[in-house]
Amino acid sequence: MDALSALSIAGTVTQFVSFAGDLISQASELRGSANSATAEVQNIDTVYATLLGFSFGLRNAEKDLSEPDANSQEGRLLGLVAECQRDCDKLLEITRTLKSEGEQKTWHHCLRKAIESAWKLPEIRLLDEQLQRTQLTLVLLVCSISSEFQHLQQERIARLQKDGGLNRLNQDRQFAELRQILQSIQSQVANLKLVDICQGTQRIRYPSHVIELERQMHSLCLNANDIQKQQAILDTLNFDSRIVRHQAIPEAHSGTFQWALATDEPDKEGREDEAKLLQWLQRGQGIFWVTGRAGSGKSTFMKHIAGSPKTRAALKQWSSPSEPVISSHYFWIFGTPMQKSKEGLLRTLLFEIFRQYPALLKVVCLDRWDSDFSSSAAAKPWSTAELRHALDLVTSAEIDVKVCFFIDGLDEYNGDHLEVSDELLRLSKLKNIKCCISSRPWNVFNDAFGQDRSQHLCLHNLTKRDIRHYVHDRLTPHPRWQRLVDHAVYDSHLIEYITEKSKGVFLWVALVTDRLRNGLTNDDDLSDLSNRLAGFPSDLESFFDHILQGVEPFYHEKMAGTLRLARAAEKPLGILFYEFHDAEYRDNEYFLRVKRSQLDREPETVQDRVQRRLDAYCKGLLEVHDDRVEFLHRTVADYLSIPDVSERLCMQSPEWFHPELSLAKVHLTLTKIIPLAIPYRRYPGSYDRSPLDEHLRAVLALASLYDADKSAVRDKFRRLLYDMELSLTADSVSYIPPHASKSLYFRERLLQSRLPKYLEKMLLENTEYLKSFDWPPLAVVMEEGCPSQHVETIKLLLNHGHKPNKKFNVLVSDDVTRKKTPWTVLLSLVVRQTRDGLASRLLPYFVPCLRAGILDLFLEHGADANASVYRTEGQPHTTAWIDILFACFEIGKQDEERYLHVLSQLLQGDASVDEVIPVGPESATYIEPASETILKRFFQLERVLAYSSDYEFSSDFVIRISECLVRRACWARWSLDAVWPEVEQAFGDTKLRHLKSIYHAECDLRRRDRKFSQMVRENICVPLFQVRKRKSGGVARYLCS
Questions:
Q1: Is the pLDDT of residue 365 over 50?
Q2: Cα–Cα distance, 691 to 693 (Å, whole number)
Q3: Strand partners, 408
């Protein structure tokens, strides 16, 4: 039992002892004196009720303390509770007797009569002494519990401080409050010990010390829980690669970019542009756009500005009196998906805001805050919509926090640049927000941000002095430079020439100075250096050509293959990729024969070997950083994507070389040579991240690019996949966690990887290939991303007989399971229901699934329109067709026909209200049929939402849905008498008559259909049955067969 619960029980005991002690004291006083002036007058019924309450409380405490160790705190506490229970029972019996016999209704008079007639002084003294002993034992126990609590909480606070320090979370004030409460608890415990020492065997008449102690301990736990929740929610926003790009950007060279934040007034004409950024930081609003040529140092500039103390000082003038929040994000086109996506941007920005103002989490992330963080619901992944909503709340006028965003490399965003520009413009119009953005000078950004010249800075036009300073610092420290300038007067001319020729491109300057330093090492004089400089192309693309022309012809094959491999990768590769890729030139099927012993045990040896090879093959265009290999600059990757360059590299590559296939080979090789464990399986189709999972998913993703091809590359990928499954099911896996299986792991991931052709091949070869799954394969598919991306796999499974209504158990907790089907899993992914189950909100996956035909596929294969949809524990089950019906108000114009087709199939699929029970606070008042409640709510919602700016549905669209509903109402025989008034209020009299006419026409059709069915039954079916019954005649037997 935790200390707080134990102290709560001790508090109950304390209050009982105090109350019982007062009663006994009155008995002692009455025994010694006939004067009742000192006795407190209490109603006998009140005393009885109070004792009864203590009796219940003590019995519950006994249950909570069932069978503890007798020598433990819980054991000693149980002993006290048992003693108090016996004393309480004795007092209850006495009080019950007094109630029945006493004519007076006060405790004083009833007790006096009892003493005169029955109660002896020794009994009173015995009970009094027993209560005093209980009290003294209780004091010692409370002190012990409190000391243990303090020790545990001090450890917990230390852990929380350490965890918060990892993310530099601003929780200093909260930790100070915790320490203050701890000191107060220590003071309370000291007071309690002092009472024990000073009063000896005298009773503590009031339990205020214990009650106050319990209150403060409870307050400490609540405050510590708040800190822990803040850290837990912040962890869900964090991601591994969040700071990787920031760390990879070079620091600004000493003394450069100082002009941007110089506080002195510009003293020369033409330097007004240099002061633009500082003025905007101090007083500006909206967006400040930093642009410049490729390689001009935009990222380094943004890193320098965002991290400078001068920036914070300037922003204080804008945010006064509050402290500004500075949040920065660095897009990286060659990074992880998170580093180049909108989700990564929003998570980074929110992370920085909440890191500096963690108290906002309780206001902005209310659903997550109220969730139990031991459940997956609280730590669930963030959707883009949820992130956007959180950012809107943070930046709303109601929250007085001023935020400046620094966003670098907007051109490296992997999405719609126009859309993200519009979103940033919308955000920057809020009074508490402004954004400093950098990008290349593309038209889309110039149209969005370039109209206000006072908030636009063109970097390559302002760095001439910085480049001159950089060149001077790079060349002049060389030991041979001073000897040259002692014999010549042209040194400053060379530096100026480099500065002019650079055209503001820092990357070009860095490459040139590296080569000039090599020339100095080779004893070049100033004339030689000038000739070298003249031979260098002035643009980067030509310069890269010049660099690659210097590669020895012997290495051209490896140069081409290595550069193409790096360009094909979605993110920088580890050095082991290049180590094993080199083996491919000796044996392009090396991955089939690789052994674990081939891995070099000395990482420094591998790194040195890879570095040397890359220098020989690529001449510095690829660089080793720690354990990964990166392009010298993004412009190198752009250069490799130029069609002429790409074609030239293809011609220089070996005939067998294919970059995606080579990548897959290395991923497979790494799974074989490195001891890897199958990741922890949370539930079917959901695994924790791990190195093995990263390699497997990479291979499957690369293979999916060629799944539909009929080529040799596809066949090689299939052979590779087959070998990977064999290796995973062999003994190469070092550890298999509980509830996991080697074969299941590969096949579940295969199912989720958009490889329907390969999967079909495996099913044809082995019809039992998916039989061992513990969830239906249709459900496993949908555990990975949006179901729309798996449309071909879903179609394949349905065509192979997998049922959308197949039930399976979902473990909610250790002893609670719930039923789901693949169909209800899909619905829970696309629609969110309100508490009463009579209003739907679309989730982000709905529209992609609708457009991909996923809902149609399920319905065509018999998905149950009346399926009960379970989402999360504590939420009501809903009904499939009702979920889809109430989602109609968020359907866009372009999706109306698709939606109507789905709804029509649902309503024609025997949509029913037989087991539909609206839930929520009003559920007890529902006395009308469920069909009336549903239909009335639908038309009421239409009337309300039609005037909401958040909904843009057309009335014609809702009328068409209403037509479907009244047709279904007719065939299902739902009464519409109470519904028509709601229809009239929603649409008016004309549309009401229109819908009634459809309803009556449908009823006529139903009656005719019933009459026709009855005629067929009477004139055909019954005679045939009679013929068959008589079994006479060959014709009858033929007709009935």
A1: yes
A2: 5
A3: 330
Q: Report the run of H or E that residue 286 belongs to, with start and end.
A: strand 286-291
Contact 924, 859 (CB under 8 A): no
CA angle 576, 577, 583 (to 5 degrees): 95
- Separation between Cα atoms, residue 364 and residue 235, nearest integer Å: 16
Instruction: Give me the pLDDT at residue 376, please.
Output: 45
Distances (CA, A) of 812 to 377, 739, 888: 11, 15, 31
pLDDT value at residue 689:
84
The mean per-residue pLDDT over the stretch 270-283 comes to 86
CB 28 within 8 A of CB 128: yes
DSSP 588-622: TTGGGT--GGGS-S-HHHHHHHHHHHHHHHHTTSE
Peptide bond into 321 cis (omega under 30): yes
Q: What is the pLDDT of residues 775-819, one digit of tens each?
A: 999 999 998 888 999 999 999 999 999 999 999 988 876 667 888
More confident residue, 909 or 581: 581
Three-class SS of residue 1015? helix
Q: Give the sign of the dihedral formed by CA 708, CA 712, CA 718, CA 721.
A: negative
Tell me the backbone φ, ψ of residue 438, rounded to 5 degrees: -120, 145
Give the lowest-confidence range in 30-34, 538-542, 899-903.
30-34
Q: 693: which residues sit within 8 A by CB, 6+ positions away?
A: 679, 687, 749
How far is CA 869 from each of CA 425, 807, 826, 855, 1025, rounded to the nearest angstrom?
A: 40, 12, 10, 15, 43
Phi, psi of 412 (to 5 degrees): -95, 5
Tokens 């110039």 locate to 446
Predicted local confidence at residue 921, as pLDDT: 41
Residues 197-205: contacts with CB under 8 Å, at least 24 apart: 201/132, 201/136, 202/132, 203/17, 203/18, 203/21, 203/131, 203/132, 203/135, 204/18, 204/135, 204/139, 205/18, 205/21, 205/22
Kindly list the distances between the CA atom of residue 634 and the CA atoms of 412, 734, 1001, in Å, as whole numbers in the listed order.
9, 39, 68
Q: Cα angle at 689 between 687 and 694, to 5 degrees?
A: 105
Output the six-digit token pair for 555: 């290495």
Looking at residue 1040, its pLDDT comes to 43
Please, which residues have CB within 8 angstroms of residue 440's CB and are 6 or more apart in sequence?
A: 291, 292, 293, 294, 298, 411
Nearest to 539 by CA among 296, 304, 339, 320: 296
* CA 307/CA 286 separation, integer angstroms: 20
Please tell me the pTM assigned to this model: 0.70
Tell me how far apart the alpha carbons of residues 856 and 103 are, in angstroms, rounded to a whole number: 81
Q: What angle do CA 751, 754, 756 make, to 5 degrees?
A: 75
pLDDT tens-place string over residues 583-635: 999 998 888 888 765 565 566 788 889 999 999 999 999 999 888 999 988 89
- CA distance between the termini of the chain: 74
CA-to-CA separations, 963 to 227, 670, 900, 952, in angstroms, rounded: 54, 60, 11, 20
* Count of alpha carbons within 13 angstroms of residue 1040, beta-carbon side: 17
pLDDT of residue 829 exceeding 70? yes
- Does 210 score more than 80 pLDDT? no
Helix axes 691-704, 659-673, angle to 10 degrees: 150
For residue 1035, is pLDDT > 50?
no
